[in-house]
Design brief:
Four copies of one chain form a homotetramer. With 382 residues, chain A is an alpha+beta fold. Chain A has helices spanning 46-56, 103-114, 181-190, 240-252, 320-324, 347-352; strands at residues 33-43, 60-64, 68-72, 82-86, 91-99, 119-122, 133-137, 143-147, 170-178, 194-200, 206-212, 220-224, 229-236, 259-265, 272-277, 283-288, 301-304, 327-328. The radius of gyration of chain A is 20 Å and the shape is globular.
Chain lengths: 382, 382, 382, 382
C-alpha cells in the first residue's frame, strides 16, 4: 500500500538532483567528516536561553561564563553540542562538524580555498573545550566549522539520576535553508555527504534533500527557501514518550506556545518528531528512531511534494511558520548574511497555496464522503 | 504555575452548572449504573466498518451475521462493546449502560416513566448476547439502554498473541452533543452521575461537562452544540505509544485522512488522546491515562473556555470539524431525531471566532516576540 | 492457548475459599470502604527513608517534622498516601482505608466491636491532615484505620515539571501475610471486599487471594504465611517504562541491591511489576496496568499453584526472600504483634521445595531438549 | 556515583587487551567491513524454527524453499539477516559481514590467505539473493563470510501494518565464544574493528570485549569460554516496550521457557536486553538503545568483573546457562568445529563460584542490614 514511497532504481541518477549554476567540484579531497557535532548560536537573553535549554530541555551545562553557556547531551563525550552566546541579534554563528583526524583540518582548508571561500584558522583554546578549528564561509553562505581536538567530558549515559522524562541523549542533525537545493546537494556530495531522502515533483523541482555522513538519515538537510538560514537543530531522545513528556512539561510551565509543530511521525526519515521555538525563535527539533543508512547503496527515498504524508506520515498539516521562519546566519565577521531568494516554487505554495494540492491516496477519485474532503487535513483550512 | 486549573472550593456549588428549563428530578430512585458498556451504531457499509474496527483497530469479533457485527475490547468479558448494524443512514441507535442488579432495570423504567419518557422492554435474546434491556428515549432525546444480564466471553487480557501495537483494551466513555449543558448535567446528576470537570466562562456559560459513574473522569460527557448528537465513543489503550501506533498504521494503509485531531494531551482529563473518523464519519477517540475520581469529594476541575490548553494541553488548535460534526441519533422507532439548536455561545466562536480569543498565560502582555504571536497556535490561522 | 487460566463458572462457589475456623459474620453492616488510602510505617532512620521515598522514588512531601514525613503520589488529592514515622523498630503501624461518608466510621466501630476487636477513636487533628480516625486491631491481627475527613491537597497530575522518569501517580494496594488465607478472605468479604484472583492447588489449598473495593484487581491481597505481617505496599505508574526507569536510577545510584524481584509481568493481575526493599527492608511494589473489575459478576481468575506463569507470566523464578520476608505489624499500643504460623503448605515449598514442582505447559511430556529442562526457569536453580 | 565505570585515559593502552600467542598482523590491508549483516544457521526442524523466528518474533520471510528460510528485519533492505537451513545438527554455518565495495572481497581473500586460513569463493547465486561471497575459516575457528553484492528488497520501515508489538527492526550484532579474548581482540583489531567496552579484573584477565565497525557498541563481541562457539545473535527493536511485548507473547503462547535471561538493562553497552533460546537452543538477543561510538577517540569503557552491575545494571543475577551454553560452529565442509578450552578464569567462577564475589558498591563494609546481604542478589542463591 505504501508502494508510492519506493524509489525506482533509475531514479537514483544524478540529473534530478543536480541544479543549475553548480558549485565546482574541487580537485582537493574533502575532509573526512564524522558527524554534526555542535551549533554556535547567538541568543539575546542568555539567562532565558539557558533556562530553556538546560532547565526545561535538560541539556547538561559543561561550562559557562557571563557570555557563553556550553551544553551537551547525555550520551555525548565531547565538550559541547550547543554554545549559547550572548549577543544583540539572534543568529547562528557556526555549524560544527567533527572530522576523523587532525590532518583533515588541512584538507578542509584546501577544499574551501580552492572553492574561493574565506577560511580561517581558530587557534586551540579560543573556544572553550576546543582545539584548533577551521572556520569557513561556505559557497552557500553558511558558517561551517571543522575540528578534531576537543576536550573529553564524562559520557552521562549511565547517570540515570540525571535523566528527565524528556532526556536528550544525542545531537542528531542540522537543517539549513538555501534557495537552490540541487546546487546545495551537489556541493555537499563533493564534501562527502550522501543523499538519503528528498522531496521532488514531477517536473524535477527539488524542494528538500537529506544528506548524511554518520549512518543515520542525515547530519544536515537542505530545505528550499530564501537563504542562507538555519532551519533547525535536532536532538535525539531514546523513545517517543520522551518527546511527549517535553510537551507535557511545556504545558505545565504554561509555555506551550513554544511548541510549533508536532509531535508527529515524519514521512521523510520515518522518525518521530517535535518542533519547538526557543526564546529567540530559533527552532529546535526533538527527534527519535530513524533508520540505518550506512551502506553505500542505501536506497534513496524520493517523496512526491504532493504526497500529504511526506512531511507528516499522519497527514497533519504543516503550519506556515514552519515553512517560512528560519534563523539568520553570520559571516566570519559576525555580520548577518544577506539573503538570496528562492526562485524555484516553494513547498508551501506547491502544496497548500492557490494552485497547490496534496493527496493522501494518489489517483483518488472525488467520490469521498463529505467529512473526508479534508477540512481537517491537507492544510486547506489555512 | 498551573494554578489556574485549580478549582476554588466555592466553585463547587450548583448555581454554575444548573441551567434554565431543568429536567425535573424524579421521586423514583435512579438505577445503579456501573459504567458505559456498549454503543449500537448504524453503518452504511458493514464490510467497510468491520474492516475499520476489527482489522485496523483490532477490536475482537465476538459474533457476526449478515447485518450485525458484535465487537469487544481485549480486557472486556461481556459480549460486546460495539454493535455495527447495517442500515441506510449512519446514526447511533443506542448508548448502553450496565447496571448493578437485575432489579435496577425496574428502577430505570420507573425513573424514565416519571420523566414522561418513552420506555420499552426488549426481551432477552432480542439482541445477540444480551438479556433483557430497558430502552428509553431520554429527556435530551438520546436513546439510552440499560441492562444487567449479558453473556460472558473470554477476557483476552492475557492473550498477548492477539495484541496489535495499537491494542484497544477497554471501552472508556461516550460523548454527547446537547444544546443546554447545565440542563443535561442536572439530569445526569439525578441519574446518579457526578461531574468531574467542566469548561466554563466568566459569565457562567457552560460549554461542556464530564460526568462519571465508574471512578474515571467520565462515562459520558455533555458537549454544547446542536443536539441530540453523538460526538464520539472512546476506547482505551494501555500506553501512549499504542495510540501513536494506530496513527502509524493508518499512514501505512494510506488512510491518514481518518485522523481528525491529535494525538495530543488533553487539558480536561489529563488523558492522552486521538480522534479518528470511521468510514461513515462516526468519531472514535483513542484515550489513555486519566486519573482516579472515585472519592465523593473528588475535586472538580473547572477550565476557562479561553484557556488555550483546556482542550489540548500543548496548545494545538482544535480543528473546526471536531466542534462542528457529530453523528445523528435515532429514536426508538429508528427514525433520526430532529435537532435542537444551541442558544448559548459556542466554544468555537468563544475561542477562535470573530470575537473569540484564547490565551496560553492569563494576563500575558502583548510584548511577545513576533514568532510567539501565535500563527501556529491559538487556532488563529483558521 | 492460555485456556488454563480461565475459571470455570462452577469454580466461583464459596467452598474453595472458605477455610476452617471462620471469623463470624457480624450482623452489623460493614463500612462502605472506597479504597486503600495510606500506610503508616515505622522507620528507623527517617532521613534515609525520606531520601528513598521522596528523593529517589519521587513521592511528594506534603508535610514533615522531626518525627514524621507525610508523602503523597502525583495524582492524589488527599493529604498523604504514606507516613514515615521515626521509631526504634521497623514495623507497620496502620493500613488506612478511606470510607464513603462520616457515618461509615460508626459502622466500622460497630462492625469490629461485634467481632470483639479492640477499637479506638482517634480525634481529628491527632494525625496531621486527618479528621477523626477509627482504629482497630482486626481479627487477623492487623492494625486497620478508617477515615473520611482529610485535608485536600493540590492534585499534581498536570504538574509535569515535577514528574521524574519513574513518576508514581497513585497508591494502588496493600498486601498482607496471614496464615489462613480462606479465613482471611471470608472476613474481608464480610467487610465488603470481592475476590478477583486466587492461587490454589488441586487439593483446595489456597495460597493467596486478591480482594478489592475500587474496581481494580485489589486494594489488598492475602498472602499465605506466618502472620500478621505486611508483605508490601504498591504504588502505580502510568507506563511500563516508568518502572524500568526506577531500576535504571537505582543502578546509577549504586543502590541496585534495593531491587528484590522483577521487573516483570504478573500472571495474577496481568500487571507489570517491580519489588523494591526500602532502607528498613519494607517491601514496595511499583505496579501498572491491571484491569477493570467493577462489575459484580467480574470473573474470578484461579491460578494453579504449580503454574510457573502465575507469579511471573514470563516464568522468571520468584526469589525466596520474596516468599519469606515481610514487615511486622504493631498493635494499638505500638507493640509488635506476635506471629501465628501457617499450617497449610507454603507456596515456596509447593513450587520449588523438595516435593514442589512447576510447569510451563500442563501435561508436558519430558521429551524436551536438554536446554529447556529448566536450569534457568522453574526456580530449580535455587 | 557511577564514577567507577569511567575509564582512565591510560587504561586505553594496548597491554591490557593483547594476549599471549597473538594472531600475526597481516601485511595485507583488511577489507572495509560495513556491518554484521546476516547469520547462516542450521536448525533441525525447519518448520518449528520458522514458526519461532517468523510467526512469533515477526521477522519477514524474503524467500523460502524446502530446505531454507531467508528472513529479514523490518528496516533491512538487503535480502536477509538470517538463514534458517535444515540440517541434522543445530550449529552455525556462517557469520556474514557486508563490505563497502566489490574490491573488498579481494582484500578479504588476501588478508586471510596471509594468515594461513582456508578461503573459498562462493559464486554469485549459490546462496539465494547473494552475489559472490568470500568464505573463510578464521584464525579463531569461526566461519566468516564477506560479501558486497546482494539483492535489494523493500525496506519495510514505513509498512506499519506489518509491525507486531515486538517488531524487530535491525540485526544489531553477533556474540562469539572464544577461549582467549585478548588474542581474539587483537585479530579483530587487525580486521579493522575497534574495542568499545570490556570486562576485566585487577590482574589483567579479560573476560569479554565488544568490537565494532558500524558506530554502535558492537558488530560482534568476544566472550571468554570454550570455543569457537556462537553465543548469540541480536536483533534491535525501537523501544523497550517492544521487548516486554515479546515476553508477554511468549507467556501467552505458553512458551515462557524460551526466555533465558532478562529483560534487563545491560551495564556494558547501556542497552536494554532480553535473551531467548530458539527451538534448537540457539540464543537470540533482543536489544535496544545503546549509544553512538563512531568517533575514533570514543572512550572505551572497562568494567570490573566483580562489579555486579556490569552484566545487568540492576544487579539481577546472570543464569548459569547463559555463561555455559553456546552453539557449535561449522567448518567450511560443514563439520562441527572441535572446541578449545578456556584456560583463563571464567567469569562464572570469578563472580559466583567458590571463590568468586561481586559487589554493588566497591569497598562496601559488611554492616548492611540482613535483608541486603544478597539472597536475591549477587547470584549467590545459585
Amino acid at each position: 500500500m505504501s508502494e508510492d514511497k519506493k524509489v525506482s532504481p533509475d531514479y537514483l541518477d544524478a540529473e534530478v538532483i543536480l541544479g543549475s549554476d553548480p558549485v565546482p567540484t574541487p580537485v582537493a579531497l574533502p575532509p573526512d567528516i564524522l558527524r554534526a557535532a555542535y551549533m554556535d548560536m547567538v541568543v539575546t537573553d542568555l539567562e532565558e536561553s539557558k533556562k530553556f535549554y538546560a532547565d526545561i530541555l535538560g541539556l547538561v551545562v559543561t561550562e559557562e561564563n557571563d557570555n557563553e553557556v556550553y551544553l551537551r547531551s547525555l550520551e555525548e563525550f565531547i565538550h559541547h553540542n550547543l554554545i549559547l552566546r550572548k549577543g544583540d541579534t539572534a543568529a547562528i554563528r557556526a555549524f560544527g562538524y567533527r572530522v576523523r583526524t587532525p590532518e583533515d583540518l588541512e584538507k578542509a582548508e584546501e577544499f574551501y580555498k580552492e572553492l574561493g571561500c574565506r577560511v580561517e584558522r581558530v587557534p586551540a583554546g579560543t573556544v572553550a573545550g576546543m582545539g584548533e578549528i577551521v572556520r569557513v564561509q561556505d559557497p552557500l553562505g553558511f558558517p561551517y566549522e571543522f575540528f578534531y581536538d576537543v576536550d573529553h567530558e564524562k559520557r552521562l549515559a549511565w547517570d540515570y539520576q540525571l535523566y528527565t522524562p524528556g532526556a536528550l541523549v544525542r545531537l542528531d542533525h542540522f537543517n539549513q535553508v538555501t534557495p537552490n537545493v540541487p546546487r546545495a546537494v551537489g556541493y555537499m556530495e563533493d564534501l562527502g555527504f550522501g543523499v538519503t531522502e528528498e522531496i521532488v515533483d514531477e517536473d524535477g523541482t527539488v524542494y528538500a534533500a537529506w544528506v548524511r555522513r554518520k549512518p543515520t538519515v542525515h547530519d544536515t538537510a537542505m530545505t528550499g527557501g530564501d537563504g542562507p538560514r538555519m532551519h533547525h537543530i535536532a536532538f535525539a531522545t531514546h523513545e517517543k514518550h520522551n518527546i511527549l513528556a517535553i510537551c507535557d512539561k511545556l504545558g505545565a510551565l504554561r509555555l506551550s506556545d513554544h511548541i510549533e509543530r508536532g509531535p508527529g511521525r515524519h514521512g521523510v526519515s520515518n522518525a518521530f518528531y517535535l518542533y519547538l521555538r526557543d526564546p529567540d525563535g530559533h527552532r529546535v527539533e526533538i527527534y527519535t528512531q530513524d533508520y540505518y543508512t550506512g551502506d553505500p547503496d542505501n536506497p534513496k527515498v524520493s517523496w512526491d511534494v504532493h504526497d500529504n504524508q511526506r512531511r507528516d506520515w499522519w497527514g497533519t498539516p504543516v503550519v506556515p511558520s514552519w515553512y517560512r521562519d528560519a534563523s539568520r546566519v553570520l559571516d566570519l565577521d559576525d555580520n548577518v548574511q544577506p539573503l538570496v531568494g528562492r526562485t524555484d516554487e516553494s513547498e508551501l505554495e506547491a502544496t497548500i497555496g492557490a494552485d497547490g494540492f496534496s493527496y493522501t491516496r494518489k489517483d483518488e477519485d472525488d467520490s469521498m464522503p463529505e467529512w473526508k474532503l479534508g477540512e481537517f487535513k491537507l492544510g486547506n483550512q489555512l
